[in-house]
Write a structure and sequence with these properties.
The chain is built from 15 helices and 4 strands. With 452 residues, it is mainly alpha-helical.
């Protein structure tokens, strides 16, 4: 008696003849040469076959063409952006500080201008002209699309390096070569160099955001770019501009997301290396930077020396002390009567303290603090990473410059010869700062703000 045979097991992936016939009809077909029961069978070509390679090439070419067509449809970055409202509080604070600065500049400088230039309006007249140019430039810069400036990051950096080398071709003024003279005009290229660093760092940090935690891409290359410019500037010598560049670099690296341990490690090694270099090359540094050592001595105790180097600091402290709580009155300063040098420039804040007293000085400081706060607010509401970093760099420069000037005038730090933004006499610095604030207004135009 024959045993009954069980049907093939389905658990091993086998099917009955009926299922096999139905499954074969549902197979996705590919061009091939095999045949089943006299009919042409479609099979998938092998990986190394010519048909497969041609299929892949066609697919890749189609995907590239699609990507190119999509990219061509994206809007181009235009030079101007005229939509949106700018930050009104920031604009009002900037104009208030500018107006306040013009009043105090005339009050502080008319005696010196009359004595040396035979014209009491010499400094204020020129400063008002540069102020008009600066305000027009600020308004014009507020309509510039800040994204459009990214294409000039590298060219502006190399151009600023060349400009910072130019002062070495001119005669020294007070022992330093910081200025380029073109006929009746003159300017300090380091002002352009600071802006070039801000623009380049913001461009690179936004483009390579994912690489900011790496040692080279996130820390070292920025320090190299800063170091090249800093060496050129510090040998002029221009120590105050170098200190500002250091502050801009450190703040932007911190905000940009650099690794904190990398910053601390590289900073420690750098400080140790500079100390070792100064120790081994003491003869060169003692001659090249002798004025720095002298200023350190005068800073520690300015009233213990009768040297001319300590005279400016002593007169500044006497002016501040004479102001008291409410000051001696606008225009009634005694130290500006040729006692305090550079009253129209680096030490104008001392005359403010003398004429307006502690209250007037606090008002100036509060206005600067509000300006800095609004600047960082603009950065927080920027629509993209580049705009935020760009705004942080600009407002950091303005805030650090104001803080360092006040600290120098009050003898909190050694005298470094740094001007007070929007107050001190100087066309290059004023126009650059007004233009940078206009770009901050441009960032605020495109900012993202919650509707109230």
């Amino acid at each position: 008696m024959k045993k009954r045979q069980d049907p093939p097991a389905l658990s091993k992936g086998r099917t009955t003849s009926g299922n096999t016939r139905r499954n074969q009809q549902n197979v996705i077909s590919y061009p091939g040469k095999s045949t089943v029961r006299g009919q042409k069978r479609y099979t998938r070509p092998k990986v190394d076959s010519g048909a497969r390679r041609m299929t892949v090439k066609k697919r890749v070419s189609r995907s590239k063409a699609y990507a190119d067509s999509r990219g061509s449809l994206q809007p181009k970055v235009t030079p101007l952006y005229v939509w949106g409202d700018f930050d009104v509080p920031f604009l009002l604070l900037a104009l208030a500080l500018l107006g306040f600065g013009l009043v105090m500049l005339f009050s502080a400088s008319y005696a010196r201008a009359y004595y040396y230039q035979d014209n009491s309006f010499y400094y204020i007249g020129r400063q008002m002209l540069w102020s008009v140019i600066g305000v027009v430039g600020m308004v014009a810069a507020s309509f510039v699309n800040y994204q459009w400036l990214r294409r000039f990051a590298w060219p502006l950096y190399f151009a600023s390096l060349a400009l910072c080398i130019l002062p070495y071709a001119f005669d020294a003024y007070n022992g330093a070569r910081r200025t380029v003279y073109i006929g009746p005009l003159n300017f300090q290229p380091s002002e352009i160099g600071k802006f070039a660093l801000i623009l380049l760092f913001a461009h690179l940090m936004s483009k390579d955001q994912k690489k900011m935690k790496h040692l080279w891409d996130g820390t070292l290359r920025y320090l190299v770019l800063f170091g090249i410019m800093a060496v050129i500037v510090v040998l002029q010598p221009h120590l105050s501009a170098t200190v500002l560049m250091v502050g801009i670099t450190v703040v932007m690296l911190f905000v940009g997301g650099a690794n904190i341990m990398h910053l601390l490690g590289v900073g420690t090694v750098g400080v140790a290396g500079i100390a070792a270099m100064v120790f081994t090359m003491w003869g060169f540094f003692s001659d090249r930077f002798a004025h720095v050592l002298v200023r350190l001595t005068y800073w520690l105790d300015p009233f213990s020396s009768n040297d001319a180097g300590a005279y400016q600091t002593k007169q500044s402290l006497m002016a501040i002390g004479s102001g008291g709580l409410l000051g001696v009155g606008l225009g009634e300063s005694r130290q500006k009567q040729l006692y305090l040098p550079e009253v129209q420039n680096d030490f104008i804040f001392a005359i403010i303290c003398e004429e307006l007293g502690f209250v007037g000085a606090c008002i100036i400081i509060i206005l600067f603090a509000l300006l800095i706060w609004r600047g960082y607010t603009i950065a927080l509401h920027a629509k993209d990473r580049f705009g935020a970093l760009f705004a942080v760099g600009i407002i950091t420069q303005i805030g650090m410059q104001a803080m360092l000037n006040i600290m120098v005038v009050t003898n909190t730090i050694p005298n470094t010869g740094i001007s007070l933004p929007l107050f001190s006499y100087g066309g290059t610095s004023l126009c650059m700062i007004m233009g940078e604030m206009g770009l901050l207004l441009s960032v605020s135009r495109q900012g993202i703000y919650e509707k109230e």
